Amino acid sequence: MGDPHPTAPSPAPPPTAPTLRAQALTRSFGRGAKALIALGPVDLTIAPGEFTCLVGPSGCGKSTLLRITAGLLRPSAGQLSLHAASPRPAAMIFQDYGIYDWKTVLANVRFGLDIQRVPRREADARARDWLARMGLSEFAGAYPATLSGGMRQRVAIARALTVEPEILLMDEPFAALDAQLRTILQDELLDLTQTTRTTTLFVTHSLEEAIVLGDRVLVMSARPGRIIAERRPPFTRPRTGDVRSAPEFTALKSELWELLRGEVRREAVPA
Ligand SMILES: Nc1ncnc2c1ncn2[C@@H]1O[C@H](COP(=O)(O)OP(=O)(O)OP(=O)(O)O)[C@@H](O)[C@H]1O
Ligand SMILES: [Mg+2]
User: Which of 31, 37, 60 for mutating ligand 1's site (highest number of atoms within 8 Å of CB)?
Assistant: First the structure.
């Protein structure tokens, strides 16, 4: 079997349409007088390859927005369009790892491929490849209970990336980790996403994390969460964790906190 176009340039041109567009997206829970408006209206456009961070007060609807994007929840009103080539374009990573304790590390990482009925040999090879990239090769046969928190979260990341998602949805993935480990995983994720250019929507409570990782940081209001501000960290790509010590970093962090502070207070002490 020969390549019919041996001299054709191989990489596809980047798609020009946005990967994701939300228009007047809202979500309520419950009905009638007891209905709770959790989210929106949210308008949001994410371009291919963009890394977008969402920050906002607790309970403002960040996870709800991610779950709608993942197709796990329907919006109550508004529209979500995903410009994607595959029927399952998104992979989600949760704060609590979401890995199975009764499966080995390799089986956990292979899980998404098993669901897609990828043949075992290929699935094993792809899973081992991602385990190697995450520095977990020697733990392929181990069970998650024997791993540290950081290693478990690496397993979760490897599992999400093994399916080569078009969109990566991360819901406070590093929240349960200590500060040092969190910094290390942020730097690893920075490296990884700058290589793969996977379109990513990343929820965090940490402004530092949002500034280090994001092309954009979106600030959400108190519930029902709307997007009230957008900032672009002024660092070129590829960037490294060194941006943490830049004066612009500290300045942007203060600015974002000013924007967020009122919303956090509004959530804590409703009018
Ligand atoms: N399945 C559900 N049924 C009823 N209410 C829900 C449900 N899921 C979320 N909510 C409510 O919707 C609101 C938004 O929840 P969501 O989990 O999206 O917030 P969040 O921004 O992710 O908060 P946090 O930062 O604490 O994770 C909250 O008031 C929550 O109680
Ligand atoms: Mg949440």
Answer: 60
The model's pTM is 0.87
List phi, psi (to 5°) of 177. Answer: -100, 155
Cβ < 6 Å from ligand 1: which residues? Answer: 29, 36, 38, 56, 58-64, 223
Give me the numbers of helices (H) and strands (E) for the chain, helices first please: 7, 9
Output phi, psi for 163, to 5 deg. Answer: -80, 0
Count of residues for the chain? 271
Per-block average pLDDT, block size 10, for the chain (271 residues)? 46 62 95 89 94 96 94 94 79 78 94 90 93 90 90 88 87 85 88 90 96 97 95 95 96 96 80 59
Question: Ligand 2 centre from 61 Cα, in Å?
Answer: 7
User: Ligand 1 mean position to 62 CA, how many Å?
Assistant: 8
Query: DSSP strand E in 127-198: where?
Result: 167-171
Per-residue DSSP letters for 53-117?
EEE--TTSSHHHHHHHHTTSS--SEEEEEE--SSSS-EEEE-TT----TTS-HHHHHHHHHHHTT
